Amino acid sequence: MKPVQIGVLGLGTVGGGTVNVLKRNAQEIARRAGREIEVTHAAARDLNKKRICDTDGIQITVDPFDIVSNPYVDIIVELIGGDTLALELVMQAIENGKHVVTANKALIAKHGNEIFAAAQAKGVVVAFEAAVAGGIPIIKAIREGLAGNQIQWLAGIINGTGNFILTEMRDKGRDFDDVLKEAQQLGYAESDPTFDVEGIDAAHKLTILASIAFGIPLQFESAYTEGITNITQEDVLFAEELGYRIKHLGVSRKTDKGIELRVHPTLIPEKRLLANVDGVMNAVLVQGDAVGPTLYYGAGAGAEPTASAVVADLVDVVRALTSDPENRVPHLAFQAGTLSDTPILSIDDVHTAYYLRMMASDKPGVLAEVTKILGEHDISIEAIIQKEPANEQNDACVIMLTHRVLEKNMNAAIKSIEALDSIHDRVTRIRMEMLNAN
Ligand code: HSE
């Protein structure tokens, strides 16, 4: 049988890695797919750029539309990123009856509903394993491996750059900006690094995970997103002293009232495996009602780890070429007509425990005022520590851990605490998750 012909849009880090893996492992891949897979066409912005891959035998063009309309190309691999040109190209490819493999999380999180509807109508597959957690086969694990479960919640470290920054701050006391620069040099950071540090990249990935876990449409616009730019060295150290680590987590949980979809810095117990996922590594913990907790760990970015996921998708698509479109694994894990309209909860309606840090006048009665406000808002304290006067005003630094509380109650309590004469500066608040079965 003739080889399946692939057109790769974008020959950067992931595109180059994909060409390399396809060439190096060609035999093993063909044995798995049942056909040889050959990159015959590629689009790149600069034809003269030095590449990480050997482009012998590949026709390279600057116009990606040439490739999506080329009748000899069977599958389009979209690796240019962004969600404007990429959307146009993917929709055009689908219109032309081509299958698509993409690593583009923003594209799927923001436009996936429209893309999958078009793909379904045309009987083509759009595969996106590489869009979430790089080389970790998390989409396949949830969509197929856990298909017998009701997923209860999932929590993940799904941005390597942010995790690298928090790890270096904790282990080496390094400065935020300095670590971010290194992540950029290593090629992990997004072209706009605010996507990494403000949690937007993680929210794209979490949106995708929540859809396949709970069978809901993609709803990126409803995700709550909070970055790590306000995390200080002292919070990292206090958390450590209390037996916790600060991680930038994406959390999605199904509750009676709706689905939580949130990305924010989070204190987690240091003994949890997830607390020990360091550097640029990613990990996702998934709680299913039948299987219990399962943990998936690996490289969340980089040329060949991401290529590993792209190539796995290519193998799946090649196997699907001869299958009846009605009997393929659905894009979002659940049959298209059965997606549920369970609402995404506003962050105000989420319950989490809290770490609070405040600067308080070191005089009698101050703590009593603070604990009275917490009590009035139905907030129960789990632990409290007070540090020596910590600034020129001789303020004490008070750190509290609370039990789980409704977010809107916490907001109201913090507002009242900040209004006290004896409390100076803003109250620092970081959510906490125990990540146990419930
Ligand atoms: N900027 C992303 C990260 C790359 O740091 O995880 C992979 O999506």
Task: Explain this structure.
By secondary structure, the protein is of the alpha/beta class. It has 3 domains: 4-135 and 303-327, NAD(P)-binding Rossmann-like Domain (Rossmann fold, 3-Layer(aba) Sandwich); 144-299, 2-Layer Sandwich (Dihydrodipicolinate Reductase, domain 2); 348-432, Alpha-Beta Plaits. It is 35% helix and 25% strand. It contains 14 helices and 17 strands. The chain has helices spanning 13-24, 26-33, 64-68, 85-95, 105-122, 138-145, 160-172, 176-185, 194-197, 200-214, 233-241, 303-320, 366-376, 407-418, and strands spanning 4-9, 37-43, 59-61, 75-78, 99-102, 126-127, 151-157, 224-225, 244-254, 259-269, 281-288, 292-299, 351-360, 381-389, 396-402, 405-406, 423-432. Strands 7, 8, 9, 10, 11, 12, 13, 14, 15, 16 and 17 form an 11-stranded mixed sheet that branches. The protein has a 6-stranded parallel sheet with strand order 3-2-1-4-5-6, sandwiched between helices. Helix 4 (85-95) packs parallel to helix 5 (105-122), helix 5 (105-122) packs parallel to helix 10 (200-214) and helix 7 (160-172) crosses helix 8 (176-185). It is elongated, with a radius of gyration of 24 Å. The termini are far apart. L-homoserine is lined by residues 134, 159-161, 188-190, 196, 201, 300-301. L-homoserine binds at residues 134, 159-161, 188-190, 196, 201, 300-301.
